[in-house]
Design a protein that fits this description.
The structure holds two protein chains of two kinds. By secondary structure, chain A is an all-alpha fold. Chain A folds into two domains: 1-46; 66-288, Orthogonal Bundle (MetI-like fold), CATH 1.10.3720. Chain A is 73% helix and 1% strand. Chain A has helices at 11-46, 64-71, 73-106, 109-120, 127-138, 143-150, 162-186, 191-198, 203-231, 235-240, 248-258, 264-288; strands at residues 50-51, 57-58. Chain B is of the alpha+beta class. Chain B has two domains: 5-234, P-loop containing nucleotide triphosphate hydrolases (Rossmann fold), CATH 3.40.50; 239-362, Beta Barrel (OB fold (Dihydrolipoamide Acetyltransferase, E2P)), CATH 2.40.50. Chain B contains eight helices and 20 strands. Chain B has helices spanning 45-53, 95-105, 110-123, 139-151, 169-186, 197-203, 221-226, 231-236, and strands at residues 5-16, 19-30, 34-38, 60-65, 68-69, 80-83, 157-161, 189-194, 206-211, 214-219, 241-249, 254-258, 264-268, 278-283, 289-291, 300-310, 314-321, 326-332, 349-353, 359-362. In chain B, strands 6-7-8-3-9-10 form a six-stranded mixed β-sheet, with helices on both faces. In chain B, strands 13-12-11-14-20 form a five-stranded antiparallel β-sheet, with no helix packed on it. In chain B, helix 2 (95-105) crosses helix 3 (110-123). The radius of gyration of chain B is 25 Å and the shape is elongated. Classes of the chains: A mainly alpha, B alpha+beta.
Chain lengths: 294, 364
């Protein structure tokens, strides 16, 4: 039996096929409109409104919220900190994740699945619980300080701190780096490294001129997947930073729920600026990779 | 003629865990020759090539390149280049960048690189393809890029690992001739790994036949084909009839072998063989003659035609001797065979004969 491509079908049949397609798309499209497009418009409208004394939204049209966002050190600092922590987390995940993914790809095929499985197992435990576990590990009476004491060193204040936040973020996001890297590396033809060696390239050269450019799609994908959620993170910074390490997510959470009174208009403006910033990064990613690299 | 050695392997053994891939191999490959490593898959030929390239180090034994010990020197420090079976072209680089890779490693000046890359691409008839990506080329063209990428470095030895394996038959034949021409043009020693005996015979100056990690025979294509030293080589290269029997007269130039049913076959032996030894007679089907009446001079054996297969250039007959010994006889159709009635028919009787010089008596 032969199947016809859509454009080979007679017109009546083609129209019917198109209607059927539209029908199948309707639930998804409806979902997106109701739960994404409309809320986004509401947030956009809020961002130009003003907060009332009891946290209600007063409908005006002003750029006051945006002026506040770009004018106050508090927000500027949160942006830079989020950015810096996001970058640090991404780079650390990459430095740990690349050798890890490489190791899994090069492992004996019968172990490969097991190793990949081990990377995924932490997902089975709630993220919050795993973050609490880090609090215990890093705390004053935790394993690390206990070990330090046993070896005769002074206890260190490991938590709460920015370092602890970083540890928690790297730990939590590592699988998102490892999986795309694994996908990229398992498609990599390792004979190319032999060819590089054959043509006189040493190990370092072979990595930077052959392996790195050819696994760049995985590196970029992993980095985007780690960077974006990290920048918006608030649980880890709250718990492991002792509410002292303010990231964008923390500010957002505070403006919407914790501050008295809540300031939804300012929060909306912050969320939008944040969104445009991340969109910008994703656009950069798509610009710098070609279709088949992704 | 004074010949020097390009590559020498001395007692080279390579073990992978429990498996012996290459077993105490001795090879002496001369400067400027086209040398083939021939054998079935898993015979150790590719491992041998990889040890010469430097991708594997021998477990024991020595390898010399141009007289220098190299068995512990990594690939990127050896003056040899490889053409890989899968070509292994860098997909993120253009054809010209691929070819320039080795020269850049050697820190050759930019203008020299440009000239030599252009020259190498012209040599493989891809002068205008420098800006393309490997993926935009056909298999045969990629093959030639791989060749240019290796040859541009002017290596002492070029290693080729079944480079024509992925090409279709017609292209493969063209590339065989092309490769041989290139090799003569550049004068570089080629070491060519293949499992295709015809390919090896077509191109090589000398062939080494390997099986189960061991070297069986080294020689020119004619030596390997006409004077195989064991049954495996006779069987692997070309077609051969094998008849087993017992040596009864090993002293004369043409020895006599009793193959049962009162049939004594005559053949040539390369070394003295004691009477009573179990031997195999190997004789190529094209060396046999089938005639209507007993031929003069040489020994002949009455035979019955079992099968006649006409393939254009040849007619391939299968005949049986008394006692059930089956032999293939290939007769070249030097005359027109249109008049089929004048030719052999199934069930006809004839006399099969051969020059004993062409029947080899093999012990192994």
């Amino acid at each position: 039996m032969t199947t016809l491509a859509p454009d080979e079908l007679p017109i009546a049949q083609r129209n019917a096929a198109r209607r059927r397609l539209q029908l199948l798309l309707a639930p998804g499209l409806g979902w997106l409109v109701v739960f994404f497009v409309i809320p986004l418009i509401i947030v956009l409208l809020y961002s130009f409104a003003a907060p009332g004394p009891t946290g209600q939204v007063i409908w005006t049209f002003s750029f006051d919220n945006y002026v506040t966002l770009f004018g106050k050190d508090l927000y500027f600092n949160a942006y830079t900190r989020s950015l810096v922590i996001g970058l640090q987390t991404t780079v650390l995940c990459l430095l740990i994740g690349y050798p890890l993914a490489l190791h899994v790809v090069l492992a004996d095929p019968k172990w490969r699945t097991v190793l990949l499985f081990l990377v995924l197992i932490p997902f089975w435990t709630n993220f919050l619980v795993r973050t609490y576990a880090w609090m215990l590990i890093l705390s004053n009476n935790g394993i690390i300080n206990g070990l330090l004491e046993l070896l005769g060193f002074a206890k260190q204040l490991l938590y709460p701190s920015e370092g602890a936040v970083l540890v928690g973020l790297v730990y939590g996001n590592l699988p998102f780096m490892v999986l795309p890297l694994y996908a990229s590396l398992s498609r990599f033809d390792f004979t190319l490294l032999e060819a590089g060696s054959d043509l006189g390239g040493n190990g370092w050269w072979r990595f930077w001129h052959i392996m790195f450019p050819l696994t760049l799609p995985g590196i970029v994908a992993g980095s985007v997947l780690v960077f974006i959620p990290t920048v918006g993170q608030f649980v880890v910074s709250d718990l492991l930073g002792g509410a002292k390490v303010d990231m964008l997510g923390n500010l957002l959470q505070r403006l919407f729920t914790r501050s008295n009174p809540p300031n939804w208009p300012l929060g909306s403006a912050l969320a939008l600026v944040f969104m445009f910033f991340l969109t910008f990064i994703v656009i950069l990613y798509f610009r710098n990779t070609t279709e088949d690299e992704r | 003629m004074i010949t020097t050695s390009a590559v020498v392997l001395q007692q080279v053994t390579k073990r992978f865990q429990q498996v012996i891939a290459v077993d105490t191999l001795d090879l002496d490959i001369r400067d400027g020759e086209f040398f083939s490593l021939l054998g079935p898959s898993g015979c150790g030929k590719t491992t041998t090539l990889r040890m010469i390239a430097g991708f594997e180090f021998p477990t024991t034994g020595s390898i010399y390149l141009g007289g220098e010990h190299v068995e512990r020197i990594p690939a990127h420090q050896r003056n040899v280049n490889t053409v890989f079976q899968s070509y292994a072209l860098f997909p993120h680089m253009t054809v010209a960048e691929n070819v320039a890779f080795g020269l850049e490693m050697k820190k050759v000046s930019k203008t020299d690189i440009k000239n030599r890359v252009g020259e190498a691409l012209r040599m493989v008839q891809l002068g205008d393809y420098g800006h393309r990506r490997p993926k935009q080329l056909s298999g045969g063209q990629q093959q030639r890029v791989a060749l240019a990428r290796a040859l541009v470095n002017r290596p002492k030895v070029l290693l080729l690992d079944e480079p024509l394996g992925a090409l279709d038959l017609k292209l493969r034949k063209e590339m065989q001739i092309e490769l041989k021409r290139l090799q003569q043009e550049v004068g570089i020693t080629f070491i060519y790994v293949t499992h295709d005996q015809e390919e090896a015979l077509t191109m090589s100056d000398r062939i080494a036949v390997m099986s189960s990690g061991k070297l069986l025979q080294v020689g020119s294509p004619t030596e390997i084909y006409e004077r195989p030293n064991c049954r495996f080589v006779a069987d692997f290269i070309g077609e051969a009839n094998f008849v087993t029997g017992t040596m009864i007269d090993g002293a004369s130039t043409h020895c006599a072998v009793d193959v049962g049913n009162g049939i004594i076959l005559k053949g040539l032996h390369q070394e003295p063989i004691a009477n009573g030894t179990a031997v195999t007679i190997a004789v190529r089907p094209e060396k046999l003659r089938l005639s209507v009446s007993p031929p003069d001079g040489s020994s002949y054996y009455p035979a019955t035609v079992e099968q006649v297969v006409y393939i254009g250039s040849d007619t391939r007959l299968t005949v049986t001797l008394v006692g059930g010994i089956t032999l293939d006889v290939w007769e070249q159709n030097s005359r027109s065979t249109l008049d089929r009635d004048a030719y052999w028919q199934r069930g006809e009787q004839g006399y099969v004969s051969w020059n004993p010089d062409n029947a080899l008596v093999l012990v192994k």
